[in-house]
């Protein structure tokens, strides 16, 4: 049988098959790409649509955006923020909840998403916290308030897809801003909003983890700035009324007032003022000033889980930080605030930054040769002498300080420590009691008095003071340690000794004497 030659398909059929396959391929590509297309951030809010809509419109105004007039009364609101377009659409809701979708789009994806996340965060804060811009008391009548209000800016942006808000203060005529570093140190995008609601891009020029300060460059010409002038003394009287202007929850120009609550405290390697200013997210970096308009420093933040324990970075650290970077940023000829002739600032900065104790000592002594009685330099010199074991010289520093600043409890405390180490227990006790009189809620003074009485074999009195320290601060590891030793070696209460030893190790798991204390626990447990 002969095999038939196979026939080619009809040309039209081939064309149909080609078109069909092309359509299917393109449909698949379109469908896949449609799945990946970003349509915006969907958000759920526990408030009715009307309230969400009005809060969103206010939020756009707060971050310097504009809403297109044709969308102002519809469920789909469009507009621009810093050259980026946005679209906000209400998807539905009831009296207690709202669903919406929000998208910012533009040439830079990172900046788009930073602005998107920022708006959503400010919107949520507006709805949940209900913080309104307000002025407390009669502070708005102070002549200095207007000056600081005009020089205070809001900073916001993103770092690794997370948003941040903080405040800052303009310190030069070309828009150099000083602020705290902890919020913006890892910023990928940074915007600065001025009191007139205009928004400009900012760029971090210099940053210091030591001072927790940063300089941000904006290149915005202005006549509204606050010159930095380093004070001669660290002393700010306890109870003095103070004011701050900042951007809590992005609300620019919000004024609050409070009082200095305690003597300057050492946190890390620097001194901080303690106060009772109400500090909220976004307040960090805002200027703090007194009723005469003198700059006291910048808001650092609030102690976690407290309502009224806040801290301020003193203004002399601001001057030192700026001086250290003065030549790098070519500020000569600008409307700058720190003069080149103040060479003591250089030496003070060197003393703070140096790693060698001998270099620190030389630098602080150089400062004091130029500015005798400069209390911040005296204080840091005393700490350096202590680290080097130069106890007699250190003692002289604290005596000078308590004469210069007799109501500074920290200086009396250090004087007590120096006397204690030199074996002058009577003088140490007197110094601790003076510190206690000035700051009655500091547990360190009670703990150290307890140790003095333990060494004097006044054990019951020692127990009272150690327990008082723990009543003020239950997590005070050293007081637990001292009570353990007292109950173990003097009062023969091994069960209480074990409790306080264990508490000490719990609070200090990496303690260098862990092995020794563990052995004490085992020995005490065998006794009961």
Beta-strand residue percentage: 15-25%
Structural class: alpha+beta
How many distinct helices?
16
Contiguous uncertain segments of 5+ residues: 1-9, 14-20, 22-36, 130-140, 329-341
Strand order of the largest sheet: 10-9-6-7-8-12-11
Provide structural commentary.
By secondary structure, the protein is an alpha+beta fold. The protein has helices at 11-36, 49-62, 109-129, 143-151, 315-324, 343-353, 357-370, 375-387, 391-404, 409-421, 425-438, 443-455, 459-472, 477-490, 494-507, 514-527; strands at 41-45, 66-67, 76-81, 84-93, 98-105, 152-159, 162-170, 177-180, 189-193, 199-201, 203-208, 213-217, 241-246, 254-267, 270-275, 287-290, 295-302, 310-314. Strand 14 (254-267) and strand 15 form a beta hairpin. It is globular, with a radius of gyration of 32 Å. Residues 1-9, 14-20, 22-36, 130-140 and 329-341 have low confidence and may be disordered.
């Amino acid at each position: 049988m002969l095999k038939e030659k196979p026939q080619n398909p009809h040309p039209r059929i081939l064309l149909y098959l080609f078109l069909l396959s092309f359509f299917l391929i393109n449909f698949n590509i379109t469908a896949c790409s449609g799945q990946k297309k970003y349509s915006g951030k969907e958000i759920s809010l526990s408030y009715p649509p009307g309230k969400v809509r009005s809060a969103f419109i206010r939020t756009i105004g707060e971050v310097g955006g504009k809403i297109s007039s044709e969308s102002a009364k519809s469920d789909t609101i469009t507009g621009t923020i810093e050259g980026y377009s946005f679209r906000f659409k209400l998807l539905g809701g009831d009296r207690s909840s709202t669903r919406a979708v929000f998208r910012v789009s533009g040439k830079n994806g990172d900046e788009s998403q930073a602005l998107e996340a920022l708006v959503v965060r400010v919107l949520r804060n507006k709805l949940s916290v209900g913080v309104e811009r307000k002025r407390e008391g009669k502070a708005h009548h102070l002549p200095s308030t207007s000056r600081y209000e005009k020089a205070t800016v809001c900073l916001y942006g993103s770092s690794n897809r997370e948003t941040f808000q903080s405040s800052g203060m303009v310190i030069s005529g070309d828009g150099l801003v000083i602020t705290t570093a902890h919020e913006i140190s890892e910023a990928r995008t940074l915007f600065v909003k001025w009191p007139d609601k205009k928004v400009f891009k900012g760029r971090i020029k210099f940053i210091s983890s030591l001072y927790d300060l940063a300089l941000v460059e904006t290149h915005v010409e202005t006549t509204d700035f606050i010159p930095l002038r380093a004070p001669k003394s660290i002393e700010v009287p306890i109870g003095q009324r103070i004011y701050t202007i900042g951007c809590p929850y992005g609300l620019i120009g919000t004024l609050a007032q409070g009082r200095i609550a305690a003597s300057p405290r050492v946190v890390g390697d620097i001194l901080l003022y303690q106060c009772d200013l109400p500090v909220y997210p976004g307040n960090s970096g805002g200027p703090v000033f007194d009723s005469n308009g003198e700059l006291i420093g910048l808001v650092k933040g609030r102690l976690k889980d407290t309502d009224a324990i806040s801290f301020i970075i003193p203004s002399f650290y601001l001057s030192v930080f700026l001086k250290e970077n003065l030549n790098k940023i070519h500020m000569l000829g600008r409307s700058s605030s720190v003069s080149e002739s103040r060479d003591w600032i250089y030496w003070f900065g060197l003393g703070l930054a140096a790693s060698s104790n001998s270099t620190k000592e030389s630098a602080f002594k150089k400062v004091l040769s130029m500015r005798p009685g400069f209390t911040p330099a005296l204080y840091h010199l005393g700490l350096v002498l202590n680290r080097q074991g130069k106890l007699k010289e250190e003692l002289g520093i604290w005596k000078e300080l308590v004469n210069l600043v007799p109501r500074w409890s920290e200086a009396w405390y250090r004087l007590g420590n120096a006397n204690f180490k030199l074996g002058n227990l009577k003088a140490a006790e007197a110094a601790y009691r003076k510190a206690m009189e000035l700051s009655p809620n500091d547990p360190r003074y009670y703990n150290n008095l307890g140790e003095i009485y333990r060494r004097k074999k006044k054990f019951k009195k020692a127990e009272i003071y150690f327990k008082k320290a723990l009543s003020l601060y239950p997590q005070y590891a050293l007081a637990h340690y001292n009570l353990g030793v007292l109950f173990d070696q003097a009062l023969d209460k091994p069960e209480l000794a074990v409790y306080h030893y264990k508490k000490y190790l719990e609070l200090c798991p990496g303690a260098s004497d862990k092995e020794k204390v563990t052995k004490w626990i085992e020995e005490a447990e065998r006794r009961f």
